Amino acid sequence: MSVMYQGATEEAIKHHYDVSNDFFALWLDASLTYTCALWDDERPADEAEPETLESAQARKLDYLIEGSRAASAQRVLDVGCGWGSLLKRLQEVYGVRQAVGLTLSDTQAELGRALELPRTDIRVENWRDHEPAAGYDAIISIGAFEHFAKTGLTRAERVSQYREFFERCYEWLPSHGRIALQTNVKGNNRVMDKATVRELMFIIETIFPESEIPALSEVTESSEKLFDVVSMRNDPDHYSRTCGEWLRRLRARRDEAVASVGEENVANYEHYLGACVRHFRNRHLGLARIILEKGR
Question: What is the pLDDT of residues 6-23, one digit of tens each?
Fold first, then answer.
């Protein structure tokens, strides 16, 4: 049963993701993957030739593609497709027959479509409005779940919003079909000083308005009796490292960034990325990668 939509509006999504494609291209990796990378834990960060952001992002995409069993699938849905890096990998590396990507950002869709990926449909569309012509063999969603419930809702209201997403996925997937989900989650370190609280509120109000980071328990509760959790990992250190690398790249090209979006925007992003480095490291935030499987 559909419930009243209480997630981030299209305007709130555009506030962040439509800042400027050129701006994001200055400090993201070449594929424009704007979500936590998956770093090689066995490879020291300070070795002579440390792992690149590009390789860590490709590893993340591969992990979620393989976990969802999307490799060589007939049809795959990417909820929150960004600039198309996952869709591109599905086509060029994994031979997916047809891929559909959903975003609420016009600028992301424009750049993703410019890739001219074969057998790929990128739509500016909310998942709640999505009516596929056929079902999907696998669903992947990276960094979109945080926008499915607005700031200020009760736990019960958030779970209700999340459950509708899982209900839709349940309808679209075959028996034993899988979802690969990556999302920020609330951390377990509840000891926060005033500076930490101010920084987290800054991120909510200035960078990601109308969005609420879920508790891990809310994700699992909202999927109960629809999906089984196959695997789950929490990688806050990986996101701290990713944000640190983004911040380093942004500062290295700061003059270009200011010319693109202005001093205030650049300063806001420096503040946001620096805060994220600390808050993932201090476990105020977590990063969950969850593989879920539909029952019969």
Answer: 765 667 566 666 678 999
| Helices within 99-152 (DSSP H only) | 106-114
Strand partners, 138: 76, 178
Distances 229 to 147, 247, 276, 292 between C-alpha atoms, Å: 21, 33, 27, 5
For residue 124, which of 17, 23, 261 has the smallest C-alpha distance? 17
Task: Taking residues 91-99, report their average pLDDT.
Answer: 96
Query: For 195-199, 215-219, 248-252, which range has the lowest pLDDT when averaged over its residues?
Result: 195-199
Residues of the chain with pLDDT > 70, as a percent, come to 92
Active-site positions read 276
Long-range contacts of 121-128 (CB under 8 A, 24+ apart): 122/81, 122/84, 122/87, 126/5, 126/7, 126/10, 126/102, 127/79, 127/102, 127/165, 127/168, 128/2, 128/5, 128/7, 128/164, 128/168
With beta carbons less than 8 A apart as the criterion, state whether 290 and 231 touch: yes
DSSP H/E element including 138: strand 138-142
Phi then psi for residue 104, to 5 deg, are -105, 5
